[in-house]
Amino acid sequence: MNAISSSKKSTLNSNLLLRWSWREIYSAQLWPVVAALVLIVACVVALSALAMRVEKVITAEGRSMLAADVVQTSSYPINPLIIDKADQLALQQSAQVSFQTMGFSDTSMHLISVKAVDSFYPLRGELRLKTKQETLSQHVLPGELWVAKRVLGLLDVEVGQTLAVGDAELVISGIIEADPELVFNPFNSIPAVFIHESDIEKTGALQIGSRVEYKRFFNGADNKLDDLQNSVELQPGEKWLSEKNQGNSGGFINKAKQYLSLTILMVIAMASLTLVLTCSHYASGRAQTIAMLKSLGASRVWLKRWLMIQVAILLAIGLVVGSLLGIVIEALLRLPLTDVLPKELPSYGFLPFLMGASVAILVAIPALGIPLKKLLDTPAINVLQQTKSKTKAAWWLILFPLSAFIYYYFDASMVWLVLVGLIVLFTLLALVSYACILLVSRFKWGPAMSLAISRLKRSPKQSLMQLAALSGSLMLIAVIWLLRSDLVGDWQKAVPENAPNVFAVNINPTELPGYLTHFDQRKIERSEAFPVIRGRLSHINGTDVYRAEQYKANPANILKREVNFTWLETLPSYNQVLDGQWGQSQGVSVEQKVARQLGLTIGDKLTFTVNSLQVTAAVNSIRDVHWQSMKPNFIFIFTPDVLQNLPATWMLSARVSEQDNDLLNQLSRDFPTISLIDFRVLGNKLQSMLAQVSLSLTVLASIAVLSGILLMFTLLRLSLKQRQSEVMLYRTLGATKKRISQTLWAEYGLLAIIAGFVATVGAELLVYSLMQWGFKLTPSLHVEMWLVLPIIALLIVLGSLRSLFKQLLTPL
Amino acid sequence: MSEPILKVKSLSKSITAHGNTLSILSDISLQVCKAETVAIIGTSGAGKSTLMTLLAGLDVPTSGEIELLGQPLSQLDDEARAQLRGESIGFVFQSFLLIPSLNAIENVTLPTVLRGEGEDQVKAKALLASVGLAGRELHLPTQLSGGEQQRVALARAFMSEPKILFADEPTGNLDKKTAKNIIELLFAMNRDNGTTLILVTHDEQLAARCSRILRIDDGKLVEEIITAKASSVL
User: Long-range contacts made by residues A126-129, C-beta under 8 angstroms, separation at least 24?
Assistant: First the structure.
């Protein structure tokens, strides 16, 4: 009987507790806490789900350009141990041998690049081979010969006719429409053909000493591929290729991914701050209730239970609503990416939800824990007398999210850069802002402004906190937006919409004027013509780079091969000079990465071997070159006097549209020795991908900015609510509505302008550091922001406080 | 005279602020017997509220001994003192201190809920009726007037059938007429329940309704007056 009644009592007890907790939340005291939790969960869920999907798509994209998940390349036949190991792991495999040989038709001959593949090639990506009857095939079969369209013009043959590839006589099966391994290299003027690997021997091209590249393609589960790559030690000349180290779109996609994770971090930081603010506001408002409950005999255990039920309800609402909202946001973020993402999207599974919940709980531990622990420690005497709690705040609770953060981001230098930057900046921002207030207070002002300033000076701790939070969140918003603009701007600069899409190389000087006329008559946008001379770098300041230990030990790529030189009167406008100055004579301008690799500085004397002649020039400038811009670019650009007397061929680039196809055909016919290379497919693909990624970054940045505004909105409204009794007192003492309203506007207006100004300085510093050291791009100043940010700050203050000001003044 | 349920010996309280020690109460000794009504009076800042917080075990003295219901408070920790309050002490505060998100009957049942017992709705309802709030059980504090809120607070105070009731300026926030009604009710309920009442006030008229008046001035017990009402408890 006793047991029954006690269990009934406890149920009743729990019922009241649940009801009460729900009402505490419902009576609007805890809604901001719920909103902050929802925001954290939703952002983490949405952004991590999207990141996972985009990552999968990017990986697939990268792999399709490699024609497999992982590729082993070697100058020798592939190590049989690797093949055995792949067999053991049951990986899908395919093989390719590529070499150059002569192609002969009945009337002419030309050097061709032969890719001999097995019937499984490619394992990923698209190989599109088209016969004369327009039928498509995706694999090469024994006896077949597929050629690049240019081969037909160069060798004056047609599909169906016989072409000798080295010694092998093969009938041309059709043309290559798409080759997964196609890359941007305008100087690679040797046209490609595909044959089956079983026909290699017939060509007789593989002799001792011939330059051959062997590739083995592998597909399979990631862990098996890792196993394979770790199973054998690489020999000289062997290399593993994967989407991580390959792909010409990798650069900007990686930056987009970095931006994505940085934005997630900033949104979490802002939402956590909202959580801390709202929760400590709640805690300070509940101190007397706790004291009263203690005076009525509430035990610590009971109070803990009471608070825990509220926290549990909050978390449950936050997690459920946040997860649902996260799904919606992910779908919204995905809208601009529709064309980039495949129709059938890979599922993101449970992981984003798990991450959202973990982040929210980890952040909530200190954000809710510290103020609630302090609340729990409120002495019972506070029911009658205000005393300060003697217990120390439980700062150690911060260790929970901090250790998880360290574990997760241990080697992400960019994240640490941001974190340290944020902490230093927040402190500095608060101090500088306060210094601004002190400065402003030195001037003579009207009564409203004087009252406002004295109010801010009277409670320095509170003002400092408010300024740090306000300028901090403004700064984060500005950083997110500016980074987006800078990244997108940089990409657009790198691959502008009018980027050239065809290259003509190997133009004889005598053919040049006539060739250019064809373009100019049709008013086709083209670059100037560049002279091209091939050569090698042989000495740096008199040191032989092939013998000196410092270069032998770690040979830069540039030392291993011949490169293309050009000479010009002035440097191309799209190359930014980073150091030095372009000169008139005996000078060479060097691309910055190569200059760094070789340790070159202005004034270094470089000697080059060109056509067995030696030429010397001094480094006069170091340039930044965007290789992805698809414009003609050179590592070394000489002043005319150095090279202009040597024989050269010429090259140019142009932007042609679909209507100009007939011109391209005519040019191929009229100038058979000039290689005209068409990059339209590759260029369009890169550009559309870029446009779409830029658009989704904009959507992402907008969401981040919205969450920042929510933070400021909460912050300002909370701070004003705390002023309610003060306002009532002013009114009781006879202050007019107008005077109070003016004082409040002066105070918050001053706060907004100072915060806006300080945030601008902070944002410039942070964006500069991130561009310079994080994204490794050229930083720039953002003058317009110096005006816009303080105005935005004012507007946010106006927007969030207008209604509340009225509400504060109305009942009186 | 019945057994004392509150014994205070040489009680002192001082606080240290900015390196200076400020004495709030010094050398106070007194005893309160069961069912006695005691008023602690004095001017603002005299130390009467501090004395009440010490007697009720809400705070600890700097020196001296308090024995409440046979238990020496100095030997009890926070939790044990809370338990003692929950079982045997009731409070009525100047600012009512009702929970805004709980309705009248839920506020009244709070003491039993805090003790881990269920909500005794029948008893709470009866108590609300006895303070004249029958039919107002489901009203939230914001839907009640100041006087009504103090009635709910009275009902809450008697819910746990306390042995001692501490009332801190219970009419301080009320108009004269309402205050009078509340005081009538407080004394009536106190009498009916046989509770010991310790009332802190600066209102001499109100104090005169108690059986004994203790006047505190500058932290010291300066006067003890046995009133005409004393005969009823002696």
Answer: A126/A64, A126/A178, A126/A180, A127/A67, A127/A176, A127/A178, A127/A179, A127/A180, A127/A194, A128/A176, A128/A177, A128/A178, A129/A173, A129/A174, A129/A175, A129/A176, A129/A177, A129/A194
pLDDT mean over A629-645: 88
Q: Which amino acid is at B117?
A: E
Q: Are residues A558 and A525 in the same domain?
A: yes
Cα–Cα distance for residue pair A103/A72, rounded to 1 Å: 28
A7: amino acid identity, one letter = S
Residues A695 and A671 in one domain: no
pLDDT at site B18:
78
- Angle CA B229–B233–B234, to nearest 5: 100
**Nearest-by-Cβ selection for A292 from B59, B97, B119:** B97
**CA–CA dist A505, A520 (Å, integer):** 17
Average pLDDT for residues A36-63, to the nearest whole number?
Answer: 79
Of A289, A297, A385, the CB nearest to B85: A297
Between CA A645 and CA A490 the distance in angstroms is 38
* Region class of B64: left (phi > 0), else alpha (psi between -120 and 50), else beta: left
To the nearest whole angstrom, how far is the Cα of A6 from the nearest Cα of chain B?
A: 8
Cβ pair B97:A383 closer than 8 A: yes
Query: Cβ contacts (< 8 Å) between B106 and chain A: which residues?
Result: 16, 19-20
Give the span between the Cα atoms of A586 and A638, in whole angstroms. 8
Is A84 contained in some domain?
A: yes
State the pLDDT at residue A3: 44
Number of domains within chain A: 4
What is the Cα–Cα distance from A762 to A600, expressed in whole angstroms? 35
> Taking phi first (over 0 means left), then psi (-120 to 50 degrees means alpha), and beta for anything else, what does residue A586 get?
left
Using only C-alpha atoms, chain B has a radius of gyration, in whole angstroms, of 18
- Please give the ipTM for the structure prediction: 0.89
* Same-domain pairing of A666 and A684: no
Does one domain contain both A600 and A698? Answer: no
Shared domain for A86 and A224, answered yes or no, is: yes
Token pair in block for residue B13: 């309280």
Task: Say if the Cβ atoms of A294 and B82 lie within 8 Å.
Answer: yes
Nearest to A776 by CA among A486, A478, A425: A486
Q: How deeply is B111 buried, as exposed, middle or buried, from its count of CB atoms within 10 A (0-12, 13-18, 19+)?
A: buried
Residues A649, A515 share a domain: yes
Same domain, A737 and A703: yes
What pLDDT score does A251 carry? 63
Cβ separation B101–A27 shorter than 8 A: yes
Q: Are B141 and A67 in contact (CB under 8 A)?
A: no
Structure tokens at A810: 């109305």
Q: Are A736 and A797 in contact (CB under 8 A)?
A: no
Interstrand relation of A192-196 and A109-117 (parallel, antiparallel or unpaired): parallel
Asked if residue A74 and residue A43 are part of one domain, the reply reads: no
Do A23 and B85 lie within an 8 Å CB cutoff? Answer: no
User: d(Cα B110, Cα B102) in Å, to the nearest integer?
Assistant: 9
Instruction: Quote the CA–CA distance of A619 and A588 in Å, as a whole number.
Output: 5
- Residue A452 pLDDT exceeds 70: yes
CA distance A500 to A405: 45
Q: Which pairing describes strands A587-591 and A239-242: parallel, antiparallel, or unpaired?
A: unpaired
CATH number for the domain including B75? 3.40.50.300
Domain range spanning residue A60?
A: 21-66+257-391
- For residues B136-170, one letter each, b for 16 or more C-beta atoms within 10 angstroms of the residue's C-beta and e for the rest, the string is bbebbbeebebbbbbbbbbbbbbbbebbbbbbbbb
Residue A286 belongs to a domain: yes
At residue A209 the predicted structure's pLDDT band, cuts being 50, 70 and 90, is low
Counted domains in chain B: 1
Tell me the residues of chain A between 299 and 338 that have a Cβ less than 8 Å away from chain B: 299-300, 302
Domain carrying residue B213: 4-232
CB contact (8 A) between residue A292 and residue B119: no
CB contact at 8 A, A608 and A535: yes
